[in-house]
Hints:
Blueprint: H1 3-14, E1 18-22, H2 31-34, H3 39-51, E2 57-60, H4 62-66, H5 71-84, E3 91-96, H6 100-113, E4 118-121, E5 140-146, H7 153-156, H8 173-182, E6 191-195, H9 200-209, E7 215-217, H10 227-234, E8 241-245, H11 247-250, H12 258-280
Parallel strand pairs: 1-2, 1-8, 3-4, 4-5, 5-6, 6-7, 7-8
Helix pairs in contact: 3-5, 3-12, 9-10, 10-12
Amino acid sequence: MSFVSKLRDAWARSDSLLCVGLDPDPAKLPRCVRDRPDAILEFCRAIVDATADLVCAFKPQIAYFAAQRAEAQLEALIAHIRARHPGVPVILDAKRGDIGSTAEQYAREAFERYRADAVTVNPYMGFDSIEPYLGDPSHGVILLCRTSNPGGSDLQALRVGDADAGAPAGERLYERVARLAAGPWNRTGQLGLVVGATFPAELARVRALAPRLPLLVPGIGAQGGDVDATVAAGANDEGGMIVNSSRAILYASAGEDYASAAGQAARTTRDALRDALRRHRRPV
């Protein structure tokens, strides 16, 4: 099954656009798990089990595991998701970007070592740095497009239109990425885009340029993105969005009830996204 098909099934089954980001910060872990040798795995596994019926995807951020020498715990976590919650896609948030031969190794890391369903990739070295991730049609590749951080404007909003290259005059860099991802780069139907909830006007522009691509949307919750504006800008008829929330769900409680508190926070966010989708769903 392709990543996009698995994602569509997850949208339909869960009636949810919510993705829980798994960014385990040791300094924020509850005391009841903090001193365990497998604290990161124990914490994330409990969060996963408390939220799996409320989400369309999980998104572990590789840096939070690698910085703690916890790559084996990340492998075990993804294995747990695949065994206990096999219908929930796993997106490895790695933001890799390098020349083709190195990209081949990053692809092996994401899809063979960690067994992720999809991986985030930086597209700014061009298509030949993306192509190695596309060898297996069951995998998804989600390209950075218009990111949620303020500094994303430094480059992504630059005007790069080149009439000689067939691009509209005055086109911005993030628009070029969206147009390529929705067109000639998506020859195998495996691509999606990262677009931040903190820029709803740009999100709407990306959706116009890429009406059928799944959009991974960080920036709600702790980053302040507005749920209604986000869904209004980015939804299509099948949902079309993977709306990520990390800290607001992971650290909903610092006590022994951390998993149940995360489940409640996820339910509240899922319901808000569901209600907004019912108001703003539009045809592809």
